[in-house]
Amino acid sequence: MGVLRFDRIERAAHWLTALLVLVLIITGAILYVPSFSVAVGRRLLIEDIHIYAGLVVFAPLAVSIAGPWGKVLRRDLVAMNRMSKKELAWLWSLGRQGRAAIGKFNPGQKLNAFAVGGLLTVLLGTGLILRWGNFVSVSWRTSATFVHDWFALAITVVVLGHVAFALTHPAALRSIFTGRVTSHWARQHAPAWVLKPTNGVREQERGSPGAPEGMPVTTPNEATDGTPAEFSSS
Amino acid sequence: MSTAPLHADLPVDPADDGDKPIGRRLFLGLVALGALGVAFGNQLQQLVGRLTTRVTNAGGGGLGALIPGANRFRFYSVTASFPVIASSRYRLEVGGLVERPLVLSLDDLRALPRTELVRDFQCVTGWRVPNVEWAGVRLGELIDLARPKATAHAVAFTSYDGAYTEGLTLAEAHRSDVLVAYEMLGGPITSDHGGPVRLYVAPMYGYKSAKWLQSISLVPRATPGYWELRGYDFNAWVGRSNGRYDAPIA
């Protein structure tokens, strides 16, 4: 029994991006921390790995949203972009108030996704200046180095936070491997996603339950008969 | 199944209106911050550098030194690995247009008149380590020992890393603040800092101060070195070259 939270495309995009970001953080640390640089050596090789991983860091996401296979991902991204006042209230109360307003992704998860996107964009841009920016002034390159270093520190903190939340929320963590959460979990943690929406228009816009992939399991009875195949237990 | 009608003009729950594109704002905000940083980061980094100087020692060690923009040495090399040379096996060649070519060991260098300097080290990428202690032989004295021919007007350096090159005019090489250094930061120069012997050209950006110094050749005219072939200025005066305005080192 379960609800599909991430389809195959989303899982593949997540894990390929995660792998690239991990490689970038490790090679970046080797290039940045002198004692790591000296211990590892092979600076040109590490540089090359860092540069090529950086160049393709958006490729998994781009390929995943580009085609007809990316329907669920596109809809989730649109939903993650927007936040209601109730969700903002949940955020300001650090999750203590307004759980009923929380959909498939909570406001913290939404912020994480766009923060990573923004940080990676700036890191890619400044990285391009550092590597191929011979045409810009040295002063700009110095600035780009400074921004690249700070944003790299920021994304490391964000990713560590993301991993910490994942490790302390095993059911949610499992869903990025299997794609599924239990309907109990969904009712507990994403009530606005799986429980009957109060406003059909809004829920449609937020990419929550619609037909047919997003169809939630609302009651055990409904779930056992006539549920689309991807919602049956795996 | 939801029976809510799918009409846009459906009365919206008043407590639930005003969905905001927070994600897009966060994304664009970060991109704008990055762009501002690229425009003004140079000045900001100098501020961070000044503020962090008190938490980083002269060698730029400690966790505080990892604050982005902190004044500390950053390790750079242009090759896959860097040479680790035992002090006893180190040799420095002085040749080219000279009457008396020299091959000097580290002990030979230590036997020559010692010059000590306390000067900042300024990298062209922005970081600056204040008040570094240096000791070595004046480059000018070493060159004069080899007796340059009248046709020599410049000096070319090579590095034991097999790739790096640098150069100075003969006049620059005779400045009193240009050293063939065998000590920095109060001790022998470690391999990552270019030991056992490196160049220290105090008044110029760090790329002039070639590490793992292998040879000093007297040549007819100045030739660009490794980074100068890649766009940096040959006359690398701190604060007066490469489009930078750092405080000069004197």
Give a description of the structure.
The complex is a heterodimer of chains A (234) and B (250). Chain A is built from 13 helices and two strands; from the N terminus they run E-H-H-H-H-H-H-H-H-H-E-H-H-H-H. Chain A is mainly α. The relative contact order of chain A is 0.14. Chain B is α+β, with helices and mostly antiparallel strands. Chain B has two domains: 23-52; 63-230, Oxidoreductase, molybdopterin-binding domain (Sulfite Oxidase, Chain A, domain 2). Chain B has a five-stranded mixed beta sheet with strand order 2-1-10-5-6. In chain B, strands 3, 4, 7, 8 and 9 form a five-stranded antiparallel beta sheet that branches. In chain B, a hairpin with a 5-residue loop joins strand 5 and strand 6. Chain B is elongated, with a radius of gyration of 26 Å. The model of chain B is unreliable at 1-16 (pLDDT under 50). At the A-B interface, helix 2, helix 3, helix 6, helix 7 and helix 8 of A face helix 1 of B.
